[in-house]
Design goal:
2 domains, mainly alpha, about 220 residues
Length: about 220
């Protein structure tokens, strides 16, 4: 299986389904992340190599382009000197250089397409890897919760009606007790708060009366 095919398989993988089917989900998700990280490094390396190859091909293309231009210049010089045979030979060399340049141009185009494909695969794989890492704990927690609920359901089905009724009654009594305690605590807090507010209002009124009294006394003294 080729590199891109392996990467494509990882990208298309449905993590939820894989965890649900796995005998050991935690081990499975860890292995998936390890595989993705390994493939990511391989694709990243291949991208770098492909870009280097593209630059090399572009350099070769430019070299043959320059060679073709140089032979054109030499053909022009031969024509100026009335050296038609030399001019023909130079033009033939020019054509050869142009054909080589065309060939390298095609390779550059193919290489450029490959680089873009690898870059796209790298981005998608990176996104899938980030998804796997971010979902790892969430998916495992969901799986553990599902298992726990299954065990609880089986345990409950094994209990008799009497034991289930007794357990329900105990739970109901506990809830009622907790509600009563909570209600009493709220009432205590409310009463205490009410008393504080009443005292605050009284103190405020006393201060207001004292201030008015002082003002009246000052007016009386001034007159």
């Amino acid at each position: 299986m080729g590199l891109l095919e392996r990467v494509s398989t990882l990208i298309r993988a449905n993590l939820n389904d894989m965890i649900d089917r796995a005998e050991d989900p935690e081990k499975m998700i860890k292995q998936v992340i390890v595989d993705m990280e390994n493939q990511y490094l391989q694709v990243k390396t291949q991208v770098a190599v492909s870009i280097a190859d593209q630059h090399m091909l572009e350099k070769k293309f430019q070299e043959h382009q320059n060679t073709a231009k140089d032979w054109v210049r030499k053909a022009e010089l031969a024509v100026d000197k009335n050296e038609d045979d030399l001019a023909r030979a130079a033009l033939e060399r020019m054509q050869t250089a142009q054909r080589m340049a065309q060939s390298f141009q095609e390779q550059v185009n193919d290489q450029s397409a490959q680089v873009e494909t690898l870059k796209a695969a790298l981005i998608k794989l990176e996104q899938k890897l980030d998804e796997a890492k971010s979902k790892r704990e969430l998916l495992l927690a969901r799986h553990r919760r599902s298992v726990a609920m299954g065990k609880a359901a089986r345990a409950q089905s094994e209990l008799g009606a009497q034991s289930k009724g007794a357990a329900f009654d105990r739970l109901k009594d506990r809830v009622n007790l907790n509600e009563a305690v909570a209600s009493a605590e709220v009432e205590m807090v409310t009463d205490e708060m009410g008393e504080r507010l009443v005292r605050l209002e009284r103190d405020t009124e006393v201060e207001r009366l004292l201030s008015e009294l002082k003002n009246r006394r000052q007016l009386t003294a001034g007159s």
